[in-house]
Amino acid sequence: MVVNVSRGTKRSRWVRLLALSMGLAFVAASCSNSGYLYVSSSDRRAFFKVPANWKFYDKRQILVGTGRSLSGQTDRQFPWLIAFDSDPKPSLDHVLRDYAPKYPIVFAQVQKLPFELQDTLSLRALRNIFYPVDQLLQENAAEILSYKNIVLPGGLHGNRLIYDVIPQGTSGITSGVPVIRVDQTGVVDASGQTLYLFLVRCESHCFRDNKALLEQIADSWTVKER
Fold first, then answer.
1. How far apart are CA 134 and CA 196, in angstroms?
2. Tell me: the pLDDT tens digits for 182-204?
3. How buried is 144 (Cβ within 10 angstroms: 0-12 exposed, 13-18 middle, 19+ buried)?
4. What would the mean pLDDT of 143-165 be, rounded to a whole number?
5. Rounded Cα distance, 77 and 194, in Å
6. How far is residue 206's CA from residue 196's CA, in Å, rounded to a whole number?
7. Is residue 88 part of a domain?
8. Residue 1 lies in a domain
9. Residue 4, domain member (yes or no)
10. Which of 12, 39, 93, 169 could lock onto 8 through a cystine, CB 3.0 to 4.6 A?
11. What Å distances lie between residue 143 and 94, 134, 146, 181, CA to CA?
12. What is the distance in angstroms between the CA of the first residue and the CA of the last residue of the chain?
């Protein structure tokens, strides 16, 4: 799924991301004494953990928030779409706005890719799936902090990268515009038919101050073969 997303309205990134496809949000979750909620996707292939007191948003809420509706087509194309907001005063707006959240946001999706994208979804496309990272690098408006390719049993493959998005580029830094930090993992199955995407993001100082917790959450993201 290639999403060429340019900087624009606060919700344009989500509208374009969701425009490629959609499905009924499903959370199979359990709590433990650790204080975490353990979440699995509707196909039981993707898993992660998140603090149990974070606010959960399902696909219907996200779609409505972006001005879309749940249809049979979107239900088939997007089997799983959820988000969590850790803000003490949570709001769906925190999830959907294209800005640097003061508190961590978690987003996860499973997407059935349209036929025309199955043969063309490259590692580069995965890297640029949420933010146009390569374009922003050329504009001095992003920095990759870490990057690794992923190869998993059963043909699952993709990449994980941690990067900063710098609104307004170097001028934004000098003027004190908050930097967005993203920990993003995207993998596709061997057939190229299904995308599994996971993101953790917040303002860069927020990310630094919550580094251990956010690494635990991002590291817990697991996709397994059938």
1. 21
2. 999 999 998 888 999 999 999 99
3. middle
4. 94
5. 9
6. 25
7. yes
8. no
9. no
10. 12
11. 23, 10, 9, 9
12. 22
H or E stretch covering 223: strand 222-223
Helix (H, G, I), strand (E, B) or coil at 206: helix
205-218 pLDDT, tens digit each: 999 999 999 999 99
Contact 38, 47 (CB under 8 A): yes
- Sign (positive/negative) of CA torsion 135, 137, 138, 141? positive
118 close to 191: Cβ distance less than 8 angstroms: yes
- Token pair, residue 173, equals 């830094």
> With 70 as the cut, is the pLDDT of residue 150 above it?
yes
Domain count of the chain?
1
Which amino acid appears at position 101 of this protein?
P
Domain span at residue 120?
A: 12-223
- Has residue 131 been placed in a domain? yes
- DSSP calls for 64-130: HHTT----HHHHHH-SEEEEEE--SS--HHHHHSSS--SS-EEEEEEEEPPHHHHTT--HHHHHTSS
What per-residue string of b and e applies to 210-224 under the rule 16 or more CB within 10 Å gives b? Answer: beeebeebbeebebe
- Whose tokens are 């779409």? That residue is 81
**Opening angle at CA 169, ends 13 and 162, nearest 5:** 60
